[in-house]
Amino acid sequence: MTGCDQSAAMIKVARERLAxxxxxxxxxxxxxxxxxxxxxxxxxxxxxxLEYTDARRALRELARVLRPGGLVVVTMLNPRSPYRLFEWSxxxxxxxxxxxxxxxxxxxxERRHAxxxxxxxxLSRRRLCRLLGDLGLRPVDIAYYDVTPxxxxxxxxxxxxxxxxxxxxxxxxxxxxxxxxxxxxxxxAR
Length: 190
Fold this sequence. Notes:
The protein has 6 helices and 6 strands, in the order E-H-E-E-H-E-H-H-E-H-H-E. The relative contact order is 0.15.
Protein backbone atom coordinates (compact mmCIF):
# COMPACT_ATOMS: atom_id res chain seq x y z
CA MET A 1 0.00 0.00 0.00
CA THR A 2 1.19 3.51 -0.82
CA GLY A 3 0.12 6.74 0.86
CA CYS A 4 1.07 10.31 0.19
CA ASP A 5 0.31 13.76 1.52
CA GLN A 6 1.80 17.16 0.78
CA SER A 7 2.47 17.62 4.50
CA ALA A 8 5.63 16.05 5.90
CA ALA A 9 4.05 16.29 9.38
CA MET A 10 1.08 14.16 8.25
CA ILE A 11 3.40 11.56 6.74
CA LYS A 12 5.32 11.47 10.03
CA VAL A 13 2.11 10.87 11.99
CA ALA A 14 1.04 8.15 9.55
CA ARG A 15 4.43 6.42 9.90
CA GLU A 16 4.10 6.47 13.69
CA ARG A 17 0.54 5.13 13.67
CA LEU A 18 1.26 2.47 11.05
CA ALA A 19 4.70 1.43 12.28
CA UNK A 20 3.66 -2.26 12.37
CA UNK A 21 2.07 -2.29 8.90
CA UNK A 22 3.84 -4.48 6.38
CA UNK A 23 4.52 -3.41 2.80
CA UNK A 24 3.65 0.24 3.37
CA UNK A 25 5.25 3.09 1.46
CA UNK A 26 4.57 6.67 2.59
CA UNK A 27 5.85 9.73 0.77
CA UNK A 28 5.45 13.48 0.70
CA UNK A 29 3.92 14.40 -2.66
CA UNK A 30 1.77 16.97 -4.42
CA UNK A 31 -1.39 15.48 -5.94
CA UNK A 32 -0.88 17.63 -9.03
CA UNK A 33 2.55 16.06 -9.66
CA UNK A 34 2.64 12.51 -8.25
CA UNK A 35 6.04 10.76 -8.19
CA UNK A 36 4.74 7.47 -9.60
CA UNK A 37 4.92 6.00 -13.10
CA UNK A 38 1.84 5.66 -15.29
CA UNK A 39 -0.44 2.77 -14.41
CA UNK A 40 1.07 2.16 -10.97
CA UNK A 41 -2.12 1.43 -9.01
CA UNK A 42 -5.29 -0.66 -9.24
CA UNK A 43 -7.11 1.68 -6.84
CA UNK A 44 -6.47 5.37 -6.21
CA UNK A 45 -8.22 7.24 -3.38
CA UNK A 46 -8.20 11.02 -2.85
CA UNK A 47 -10.19 12.11 0.17
CA UNK A 48 -10.48 15.69 1.33
CA UNK A 49 -7.97 17.05 -1.16
CA LEU A 50 -9.56 18.03 -4.49
CA GLU A 51 -11.31 21.12 -3.13
CA TYR A 52 -7.93 22.55 -2.05
CA THR A 53 -6.15 22.14 -5.37
CA ASP A 54 -6.69 22.48 -9.10
CA ALA A 55 -9.17 19.62 -9.45
CA ARG A 56 -8.60 19.15 -13.18
CA ARG A 57 -4.82 18.75 -12.75
CA ALA A 58 -5.22 16.51 -9.70
CA LEU A 59 -7.71 14.24 -11.46
CA ARG A 60 -5.44 14.07 -14.51
CA GLU A 61 -2.65 12.81 -12.23
CA LEU A 62 -4.93 10.27 -10.54
CA ALA A 63 -6.02 8.98 -13.95
CA ARG A 64 -2.38 8.82 -15.08
CA VAL A 65 -1.24 6.62 -12.17
CA LEU A 66 -4.33 4.38 -12.37
CA ARG A 67 -4.03 1.09 -14.28
CA PRO A 68 -6.51 0.54 -17.12
CA GLY A 69 -9.76 -0.76 -15.66
CA GLY A 70 -8.75 0.46 -12.19
CA LEU A 71 -10.93 2.27 -9.68
CA VAL A 72 -10.58 5.88 -8.56
CA VAL A 73 -12.45 7.08 -5.47
CA VAL A 74 -12.63 10.81 -4.73
CA THR A 75 -14.51 13.00 -2.28
CA MET A 76 -15.72 16.56 -2.70
CA LEU A 77 -17.54 19.07 -0.52
CA ASN A 78 -21.11 19.55 -1.73
CA PRO A 79 -21.41 23.25 -2.64
CA ARG A 80 -25.18 22.98 -3.07
CA SER A 81 -26.06 21.53 0.32
CA PRO A 82 -28.00 23.86 2.64
CA TYR A 83 -25.20 23.40 5.18
CA ARG A 84 -22.44 24.59 2.83
CA LEU A 85 -24.56 27.42 1.40
CA PHE A 86 -25.27 28.72 4.91
CA GLU A 87 -21.73 28.11 6.14
CA TRP A 88 -20.03 29.92 3.25
CA SER A 89 -22.62 32.68 2.68
CA UNK A 90 -23.73 33.51 6.23
CA UNK A 91 -21.83 31.84 9.07
CA UNK A 92 -18.16 32.51 8.14
CA UNK A 93 -18.82 36.05 6.86
CA UNK A 94 -20.64 36.78 10.15
CA UNK A 95 -17.68 35.45 12.17
CA UNK A 96 -15.30 37.66 10.14
CA UNK A 97 -17.55 40.68 10.65
CA UNK A 98 -17.73 40.00 14.38
CA UNK A 99 -13.93 39.89 14.50
CA UNK A 100 -13.72 43.30 12.81
CA UNK A 101 -16.25 44.76 15.26
CA UNK A 102 -14.28 43.28 18.17
CA UNK A 103 -11.05 44.79 16.81
CA UNK A 104 -12.76 48.19 16.47
CA UNK A 105 -14.08 47.82 20.06
CA UNK A 106 -10.57 47.10 21.36
CA UNK A 107 -10.97 43.38 22.15
CA UNK A 108 -7.53 41.79 22.61
CA UNK A 109 -6.46 39.81 19.49
CA GLU A 110 -6.43 36.45 21.31
CA ARG A 111 -10.11 36.92 22.28
CA ARG A 112 -11.41 38.06 18.87
CA HIS A 113 -13.41 35.88 16.55
CA ALA A 114 -11.59 35.05 13.34
CA UNK A 115 -11.98 32.93 10.23
CA UNK A 116 -9.30 32.93 7.58
CA UNK A 117 -10.14 32.43 3.94
CA UNK A 118 -9.64 28.80 2.97
CA UNK A 119 -9.34 28.85 -0.80
CA UNK A 120 -11.82 25.97 -1.05
CA UNK A 121 -13.10 25.35 -4.58
CA UNK A 122 -15.89 22.82 -4.27
CA LEU A 123 -17.37 21.39 -7.45
CA SER A 124 -20.92 20.24 -8.03
CA ARG A 125 -21.46 16.55 -8.68
CA ARG A 126 -22.22 17.26 -12.33
CA ARG A 127 -19.01 19.24 -12.86
CA LEU A 128 -16.83 16.68 -11.08
CA CYS A 129 -18.35 13.84 -13.11
CA ARG A 130 -17.76 15.83 -16.30
CA LEU A 131 -14.07 16.27 -15.39
CA LEU A 132 -13.79 12.54 -14.71
CA GLY A 133 -15.48 11.79 -18.05
CA ASP A 134 -13.06 14.10 -19.88
CA LEU A 135 -10.28 11.84 -18.56
CA GLY A 136 -11.99 8.66 -19.72
CA LEU A 137 -13.26 7.72 -16.27
CA ARG A 138 -16.90 6.70 -15.89
CA PRO A 139 -18.59 7.23 -12.50
CA VAL A 140 -20.06 3.94 -11.26
CA ASP A 141 -21.35 5.08 -7.86
CA ILE A 142 -22.04 8.33 -6.02
CA ALA A 143 -23.04 8.66 -2.39
CA TYR A 144 -23.59 11.74 -0.28
CA TYR A 145 -22.41 11.69 3.32
CA ASP A 146 -22.48 13.77 6.47
CA VAL A 147 -26.20 14.20 5.80
CA THR A 148 -27.42 16.81 8.25
CA PRO A 149 -30.36 19.21 8.48
CA UNK A 150 -28.40 21.23 11.06
CA UNK A 151 -26.62 24.46 10.23
CA UNK A 152 -23.44 25.86 11.76
CA UNK A 153 -22.79 26.25 14.68
CA UNK A 154 -25.63 23.98 15.91
CA UNK A 155 -24.19 20.94 14.13
CA UNK A 156 -21.12 21.04 16.39
CA UNK A 157 -23.23 21.03 19.54
CA UNK A 158 -25.30 18.05 18.44
CA UNK A 159 -22.29 16.06 17.23
CA UNK A 160 -20.48 16.61 20.51
CA UNK A 161 -23.36 15.09 22.51
CA UNK A 162 -24.77 12.62 20.00
CA UNK A 163 -23.29 9.16 20.54
CA UNK A 164 -25.24 7.86 17.53
CA UNK A 165 -23.55 10.38 15.23
CA UNK A 166 -20.07 9.39 16.38
CA UNK A 167 -20.63 5.62 16.61
CA UNK A 168 -22.77 5.15 13.50
CA UNK A 169 -21.50 7.45 10.73
CA UNK A 170 -23.17 5.17 8.17
CA UNK A 171 -26.48 6.79 9.20
CA UNK A 172 -25.27 9.99 7.55
CA UNK A 173 -24.93 8.45 4.05
CA UNK A 174 -27.60 8.73 1.35
CA UNK A 175 -28.08 8.03 -2.33
CA UNK A 176 -31.78 8.90 -2.17
CA UNK A 177 -33.83 12.02 -1.51
CA UNK A 178 -31.82 12.98 1.59
CA UNK A 179 -28.69 13.37 -0.53
CA UNK A 180 -29.31 17.12 -0.93
CA UNK A 181 -28.55 17.43 2.81
CA UNK A 182 -25.14 15.76 2.41
CA UNK A 183 -22.33 18.22 3.12
CA UNK A 184 -19.99 16.16 0.92
CA UNK A 185 -20.08 13.33 -1.59
CA UNK A 186 -17.91 10.46 -2.79
CA UNK A 187 -17.57 9.31 -6.40
CA UNK A 188 -16.21 5.94 -7.52
CA ALA A 189 -15.20 5.82 -11.19
CA ARG A 190 -13.54 3.36 -13.58
